[in-house]
Amino acid sequence: MAVSRKFLTLNHTTKGQVNYVKRTKVYKMVICAMIAAIYATISLALAPISFGAVQFRISEAMTMLPVFDPITILGVTLGCLVTNLVGFMTGANILGWLDIIFGTAATLIAAVLTWLLRDIRFKGLPVLAAIPPVLTNAVIIGLELCYLIAGEFNWPVFLANAVSVGAGQVVSCFVLGLPLVWCLQRNGLYKKLFIHSDSMAQ
C-alpha cells in the first residue's frame, strides 16, 4: 500500500508538472501573439510616420520588453514582420521587400542584444539595453534607404538616412521605451505579465 500511495503521489506530481509546462507554453504563445498584435496595430495605424526616411515607430518602444522575458523577442519580431509585410502589400512601405527581410532582421538583432544587456542598469533602468535598437536600425534601415535612393552605397546618403532613422529610434527607445520599462517595474506588472521576468528588474 505504501508503494502504491507513493506511486500515486509521484504520478499526480508528474501530471501536475506536465500541466504546468503546457499552461506555461500556452501563456507564452498568448503573450507573444499579444505583443506582435500591439506592435503591428500601432505601426500600421500610424503608417505615415512608421515608414520612410523620416520614420518614428512608436511601437519600437516595445523592443525594450526583452529586458523582462526573452519570449518578447519573438513577439516584437513577428510584429515587425507583419508590419513590414502589410506595409509592402499596401504600398505604404517604400522599402518594399527589402524591409520585410532586413528591417525585420534589424528588429530581431536589436531585441536579442537588448535582452543580453538587460542586467546592466543605472538606477534600476536598463539604459544600455536601449542602445541596440537605435544602432541596428540606424545602420540597417539606413543602408536600405541608401540603396533605394542612390542605387549604390554612398556615404553622405547613408549617413543622412542613418541619422534620421536613428533619431526616431532614440525617441522610441529612450523617451518612450525606458519609461515603459519603469512603469512596468514600478507597479510590479511585469511580474504578472512575464513568467521569466528578470530578477533584477526592480
Question: Which helices and strands, and how do they pair?
Answer:
Elements: H1 2-45, H2 47-50, H3 71-90, H4 97-116, H5 131-150, H6 155-186, H7 189-193
Helix pairs in contact: 1-3, 3-4, 4-5, 5-6
Could you characterize what this model shows?
With 202 residues, the protein is mostly helical. The protein has a single domain, classed as Arp2/3 complex 21 kDa subunit ARPC3 (Orthogonal Bundle), CATH 1.10.1760. The chain contains seven helices and no strands. The longest helix has 44 residues. The C terminus is likely disordered.
Distance between the termini: 49 Å
Q: What gyration radius follows from the Cα positions, in whole Å?
A: 20 Å
Number of DSSP helical runs: 7
SS-based class: mainly alpha
Query: Uncertain regions: pLDDT < 50 for 5+ in a row?
Result: 6-10, 198-202
Overall CATH class:
Mainly Alpha
- Mean pLDDT across every amino acid position: 88
Number of strands: 0
CATH topology: Arp2/3 complex 21 kDa subunit ARPC3
Question: So, CATH architecture?
Answer: Orthogonal Bundle
Largest sheet: none
Strand content: under 5%
Q: Domain count, please report it.
A: 1
* Helix fraction by DSSP (H/I, runs of at least 4): over 70%
Globally, the shape reads globular
| SSE ordering | HHHHHHH
